[in-house]
Amino acid sequence: MKDKERGIRYVAPSLIVLTLVTVYPVLYVFYLSLHRKLLIFNISKFIALDNYLFLIRDERFWNALRNTAYFTGLSVALELLLGLGIAVLLNRSFRLKGASRAIVLIPWAIPTVVSARMWEMMFNTDFGVINYLLGVKINWLGSPFWAIHAAIFVDVWKTTPFVVILLTAGLQVIPRELYSAARIDGAGSWQMFRSVTLPLLLPVILVVLLFRTLDAFRVFDAVYVLTGGGPANSTETVSIYAYKVLFQTLQFGYGSALSLVVFFCTGSIGIFYIRLMTGRRT
Amino acid sequence: MMKRAGFYALLAVVMLYCAGPLAWQLITSIKLSGEIAVLPPLVSTNPTAAHYLSVFHDYSFARYILNSLIVAGSTTILSLLLGSICSFGLAKLRVPFASLVLAFILSVSMFPPIATVSPLYIIIRTLGLRDTLAALVMTHTVFSLPLTVWVLTNFFRTVPDDIYHAARIDGCRPFQVYWKIMLPLSLPAVFTTAILVFIFSWNEFLFALTFTSASARTVPVAIALFPGIHEMPWGEIAAASVIVTLPIILLVLLFQRKIVEGLTSGAVKG
To answer: What does pTM read for this prediction?
Structure first.
């Protein structure tokens, strides 16, 4: 039985600030995207869908979208695989388990900006520790091919702990009896992983994929600090492109149109995964 | 025996992968400037505190750290106050379309910040809040609300309704039940949420970069925009990185269990 006292007064303050600071701005972004708005000259002119028509023909936008998709796909896949491996490893019982789990959290806790700076230094061509350890002399952040992969690597490093945490929680609720039953039936460890662990972990894996895909698709900090979108826009994601258009060239109309693309893409990704999850449940 | 050794070897690799880069940063931060760019990269034989001193002397990091502390601290308090009141209403009182309200709040956490940054910038400029800590506290509070409401609503729901009703019969008004009974009972969950919100705000970059220019600059922005035209001050960058990261690492090592609980709350159950 709920109290007759209306809860709406308790919920209202949060709803109001959320609406003011997130929903209202998104509507405002849409409004801006229909204008040619240059902040410095106080120019603001209604141009209907011209920004979007320009966007469709903007090769730099398509390049950014391709980069974002490639970045998202590869980094989420690697995070999931690596996270799964580490979670399974840490799920065994051993001494120093608590300490190991705390250490695994370190990359997650480090500010993204700091991790980008850290790796920037280690990726340095001349004195970076990575080239030294590999015994090569690759210009990681200076060549288009390596730069995007270096950015993906930094993102994977930073976010794998989050995947490990969620998957570990998922592993812990799998009943032990299932494993002993499988063992009696003569299953090897790979078979147990495939026919017990993986299916029972699937709901958690979907949650991980949802969070990580959304996050990776709107990536900004890590790549912006590591490469600034370069060299030659090879690591420029849609968020970075939108940010540059907004705050470096101060074209608020076109920049808003670009940032709405990120909004609609992440929205579609979210709906896709939530459909998938609820579809599995019913 | 062999299997056991293999396991520990693999474990060591994972630990090195996770903690190695930070350790390397720590080593770099106490090297002399001349030693940083030298190959093979060695551990310094005569450690120096010069970079740490320089970060405070030449780059006014004390100011940035204070800014970050004020922003993250205020954000944590505000987000928990607003969020816990909201969660109390959702968990214990009658709210029309309660599940829809919760779904809306959660969907906000999927909003990409980049899609709100241009109008927020215009609003903040109009209000005269550019380059103020208030602008950051406001945006950080709102963007951390979904997490706070989600974790606390889940927790409040586990507190038996009987406690609530007993207090009501004894003459407590709902708000008194929230303040005198629910909050004290939920201290562990409140604490967990506080850590997560603090870390989020401490690390936040996009809004901090956009809304501040000088006096309200936070540490992540200062590190990202470290001045260096011809030669990067790598020693200083390393020292600054260690300074901002250590408090967070300490929180993580001390409260590892709580953080894990907070991050998995709901994600696994729901």
So the answer is: 0.91
